[in-house]
C-alpha cells in the first residue's frame, strides 16, 4: 500500500518525482547515508522523514519512527514548518518586487500608513527580510496563553506592535519573528489577498505543493512534507516562482550577517549553502540547497531538535560538505555526553579536557534539562558541572548549576555558585535578589 501511494504521488507530479541512482559525485555520500541508517542506531532513534535529491532525481527518501500519536511516519507525513515558512514570505515579497508592485527600499510607513508604531514606520522592506529591522519577537506568556485564538496576521500585532526597536534599522541583526509578520501584512496589503490564499495561488500551486498549508503566520508554522519542500526548492532553482535576479538577491548576504532575504547563508568548505531550518519543542526541519550544485536535502521531524534530528542533520552535513569547526564542536558535545552516560562524570570530565573543553553549552544544557525532567537531579547537576568546566569564565553556567542544586536541596552549594556567578557578572539583578533571599533564609 505504501509503494502504491508513492507511485500515485509520482505519477501526479512526474517531473518532481523521478527516482534514479546517484551520479558519481553523490554516489558515495548516498551509500554512507544509507549505511548510517541501516547499520547504526540513527534509524532507531530518528522520528522523521528524509529526502535527498540531485535536481529532478530523488536519490534517497525514507521515513523513520512514529508520530506523537504513535502512527508510523511515512514519506507523506506532514510536519510543522516552524521558521522554514519564512522562505515563502520572502519569495512572495520578491514576486511583488519583480511585478513592480513593491520596492525593497519602501518603508513600513509608506506601505502601511495605518501601522500604529511610529518608530517602526521608517523600517524598509529589505530590513524586515534580513532581520536587520530592530524589531523583536512576539513569543511570550501572553501570546502562548492566547495562541489558540490566533486566526489571522492581524491577531499577532498586540503581542509586539508597541515594542520599541532594539536598534536602528540596518545597524545590526537580530532574528525577528515580528518582522516577518509585518512582511505578511505587506503582502496582504499590496496584493489585496489574504496571506495564506496568496501563497496557495502564487507559490504552492505553481510549485505543485499539494500538501502544504493553510498557513496563518508569515513568520512560520503550518504543515508541509519533505516532498513539498523539495518541490519548492526545484521551483526556485528552475525560476518558476521568481527570476534569476530575485533568487540572487535572496541568496546574497547584503548586511554580512549570514542571512540573505528569507534564506540562511553558510559556507561549508567552499560549498555555498542556502535554505532555512526551523525548530521548537516537537518540531524540527531544514531545507538545504547549494549554489551551483543540484543537491537538495530535506529533513523533518516531529520531535525536539535535539531528539535525534540535529544528530541526523549533522552527520548528513558532514558527509556531503566535510567537517567544519561548528560540526566538530557538535560531535565533541555528543561524545562527552555519551561518555558521561556510559562511564560517569570523571571519565566525561577527562574526555572534555582532551577535547579542549570545546562543547556547545546549549546542547549540553538540553541533556541536563532532560535528566531534571526525569527527576534525576544528581545527573542534571553533573552535566551542568561539565558546562561549568567548559565555560568557566562565563557567569550563567554557575547560576544554572545553582538552580539545579536548589531543586536537589543543596542550598549551601547553590549559594556558593550564585556568588561565583556574581564574581563574574556583579550586575545580574536576578542573581543578586535570589542570593539575598537565600541568605536571609539561612
Global structural class: alpha+beta
Parts with pLDDT < 50 across at least 5 consecutive residues: 1-19
CATH secondary-structure class of the largest domain: Alpha Beta
CATH topology of the largest domain: Beta-lactamase
- Per CATH, the superfamily of the largest domain is DD-peptidase/beta-lactamase superfamily
Largest sheet: 7 strands, mixed
Percent of residues in helices: 40-55%
The dominant shape is: globular
Cα gyration radius (Å): 24 Å
Number of separate structural domains: 3
- Spatial order of the strands forming the largest sheet: 1-3-2-9-8-7-6
Assembly type: single chain
The count of strands amounts to 9
- Mean pLDDT score: 92
Distance between the termini: 67 Å
- Beta content comes to 5-15%
CATH architectural arrangement of the largest domain = 3-Layer(aba) Sandwich
Q: Could you state the order of secondary-structure elements as H and E?
A: HEHHEEEHHHHHHEHHEEEEHHHHHHHH
Amino acid at each position: 500500500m505504501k509503494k502504491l501511494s508513492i507511485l500515485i504521488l509520482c505519477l501526479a507530479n512526474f517531473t518532481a518525482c523521478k527516482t534514479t541512482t546517484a551520479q558519481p559525485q553523490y554516489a558515495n555520500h548516498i551509500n554512507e547515508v544509507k549505511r548510517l541508517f541501516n547499520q547504526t542506531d540513527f534509524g532507531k532513534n530518528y522520528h522523521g522523514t528524509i529526502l535527498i535529491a540531485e535536481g529532478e532525481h530523488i536519490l534517497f527518501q525514507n521515513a523513520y519512527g512514529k508520530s506523537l500519536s504513535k502512527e508510523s511516519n511515512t514519506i507523506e507525513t506532514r510536519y510543522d514548518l516552524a521558521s522554514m515558512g519564512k522562505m515563502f514570505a520572502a519569495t512572495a515579497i520578491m514576486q511583488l518586487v519583480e511585478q513592480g508592485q513593491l520596492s525593497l527600499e519602501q518603508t513600513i510607513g509608506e506601505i502601511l500608513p495605518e501601522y500604529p508604531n511610529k518608530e517602526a514606520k521608517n523600517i524598509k522592506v529589505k530590513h524586515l527580510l534580513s532581520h536587520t529591522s530592530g524589531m523583536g519577537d512576539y513569543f511570550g506568556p501572553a501570546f502562548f496563553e492566547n495562541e489558540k485564538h490566533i486566526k489571522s496576521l492581524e491577531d499577532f500585532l498586540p503581542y509586539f506592535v508597541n515594542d520599541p526597536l532594539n536598534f536602528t534599522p540596518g545597524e545590526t541583526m537580530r532574528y525577528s519573528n515580528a518582522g516577518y509578520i509585518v512582511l505578511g501584512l505587506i503582502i496582504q496589503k499590496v496584493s489585496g489577498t489574504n496571506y495564506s490564499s496568496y501563497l496557495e495561488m502564487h507559490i504552492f500551486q505553481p510549485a505543485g505543493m499539494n500538501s502544504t498549508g493553510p498557513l496563518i503566520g508569515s513568520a512560520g508554522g503550518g504543515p508541509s512534507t519533505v516532498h513539498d519542500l523539495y518541490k519548492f526548492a526545484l521551483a526556485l532553482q528552475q525560476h518558476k516562482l521568481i527570476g534569476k535576479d530575485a533568487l540572487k538577491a535572496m541568496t546574497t548576504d547584503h548586511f554580512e550577517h549570514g542571512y540573505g532575504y528569507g534564506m540562511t547563508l553558510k559556507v561549508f568548505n567552499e560549498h555555498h549553502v542556502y535554505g532555512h531550518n526551523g525548530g521548537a519543542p516537537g518540531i524540527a526541519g531544514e531545507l538545504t540547497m547549494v549554489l551551483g550544485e543540484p543537491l537538495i536535502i530535506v529533513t523533518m521531524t516531529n520531535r525536539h531538535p535535539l531528539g535525534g534530528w540535529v544528530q541526523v542533520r549533522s552527520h548528513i552535513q558532514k558527509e556531503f560538505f566535510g567537517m567544519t569547526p561548528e560540526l566538530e564542536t557538535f560531535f565533541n558535545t555528543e561524545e562527552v555526553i555519551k561518555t558521561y552516560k556510559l562511564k560517569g562524570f570523571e571519565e566525561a570530565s577527562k574526555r572534555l579536557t582532551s577535547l579542549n573543553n570545546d562543547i556547545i553549552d546549549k546542547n549540553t544544557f538540553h541533556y541536563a534539562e532532560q535528566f531534571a525532567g526525569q527527576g534525576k537531579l544528581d545527573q542534571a547537576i553533573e552535566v551542568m558541572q561539565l558546562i561549568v568546566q567548559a565555560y568557566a569564565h562565563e557567569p550563567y553556567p554557575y547560576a544554572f548549576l545553582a538552580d539545579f542544586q536548589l531543586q536537589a536541596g543543596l542550598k549551601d552549594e547553590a549559594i556558593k555558585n550564585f556568588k561565583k556567578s556574581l564574581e563574574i557578572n556583579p550586575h545580574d539583578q536576578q542573581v543578586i535578589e535570589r542570593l539575598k533571599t537565600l541568605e536571609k533564609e539561612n
